[in-house]
Amino acid sequence: MTGTDVPPTDPVPYTADEMMSVASARALADARCCFVGIGLPSTAANLARRTHAPGLVLVYESGALGAKPDRLPASIGDGILARTAVAVVSVPEVFNYWLQPGRIDVGFLGAAQLDRFANINTTVIGDYARPTVRLPGAGGAPEIAASCREVFIVLRQSARSFVRRLDFVTSVGHGGGGGDRARLGLPGAGPTLVITDLGVFRPDPQTRELTLTEVHPGVDVERVRAATGWDLKVAADLRTTPAPTDVELAALRQLARSLEAAPDPAREG
Amino acid sequence: MADIVSMAEAVAELVRDGDTVALEGFTHLIPMAAGREIIRQGRRDLTLVRMTPDLVYDQLIGAGCASKLVFSWGGNPGVGSLHRFRDAVEHGWPAPLALEEHSHAGMANRYVAGAAGLPFAVLRGYAGTDLATVTSTIKQITCPFTGEHLAAVPALNPDVTVIHAQRADRAGNVQLWGLVGVQKEAVLAARRTLVTVEEIVDELTPMPDAMVLPSWVVTAVAEVPGGAHPSYAQGYSERDNEFYAAWDAIARHRDSFQRWVREVVFA
């Protein structure tokens, strides 16, 4: 088996979440440093360090620069981050000296809701003043999305998370489309990659609308459409994500075992 | 010079009804014991300021101490929701909670301005977000030198800031290390400050990357070993991740939370 073009009928020895984390880790092949959100982004960045990107510099908003944890951190302030970091700095310094001037290659974020231009909501479901669900809020994300050279987003995909219109714009992806980031004065390139449990999306070069460019093995386009709240654009040369290798899966499962005490880190915004 | 007192005396003296209160500590060194003391002393109508409300403010909000929250990320790190915070915002229980909501960068810079004695801070932030539309303390300004549009946020100057640190000497000089978050700025921005410490020592031996807050910017120091639990104090304790997970069930329902207040806070 080559790892590509797995027929959809094949039984898959991995979960959709594992495929999502492996695809996310692979995306960090060319990055030098990554500003890491907790949950799925942290899993991906730590998996990348354990597989193909051992030199990847992990930056956590708690002030750990170049953290090298030997297990998954339970939170962005886990003591293992400070103990293994090249340098530990204050929170104002992380944002003002390291993030804001554009020293970080990739900001890796999660999201509760995403729209077709990869804008992110992590604030409320429903009306802001009387929300149906009050979510955690912005954290570091608005400025990570603004100032990193590029942004990757990882989230589980459903019609509830991939929505036509966000209830609240917490962090700006491509705003209303092509040219909006420049108009808003946002220095970074914005989201260049969105990875879900179903596939991979990239913004159209002109319109900046998310386009499905890869489906994970065993997923068809109709399933992705059903889990998307807008009329989904699909790339003409749609590819299938190579399935996780045994090495990737072993490294990911070892990481997951290292954090069995903490339930579902993806629920953190 | 800082007074070395008991935590109960310090809270009674320094934290008053209606105050703007910041309990800081970014995941590490969260002054949890001081939060429970504020609940025991029945403070009301507080404006609570904190980047990450965490369990400490979930407890204060659920206990009815707060009327307003100034914050940037309100979740249970690694676990999920802060249910008391959500109940207050979604249902007004036990009392309505006004929100003043920022990003981390905005909150950090508000403390920086407060510490520096400036009226506001400037940052490249918030552009295009809805935060600027719901939060009146986010404004746009134009750089007088380059013409760039930037965000301005007003200084935070709490009536009282409370932090937890590893140790202090008998003169009240405070030493902390590891992830030091925004504590220096939060202390220097405040009118009054209380520092709880793991231990009071004769001499502060140097530690790598340690920060020292001189006694003359600290109002009171109280020795409270384990005062950050379930958060942690590097060199003294580990984060109790199991308690963070257990808090989800305690805080999920009003009954179980109120039982926790009765049986743990007022034990």
From TrEMBL, chain B:
A GO molecular function held by the record: CoA-transferase activity
InterPro entries associated with the record: CoA_trans_fam_I, NagB/RpiA_transferase-like
Assigned keywords, A-Z: Transferase
Keyword Transferase tagged: yes
Pfam families for the chain: CoA_trans (PF01144)
SMART domains reported for this sequence: CoA_trans
Protein family (similarity comment): Belongs to the 3-oxoacid CoA-transferase subunit B family.
Protein's name in the database: CoA transferase subunit A
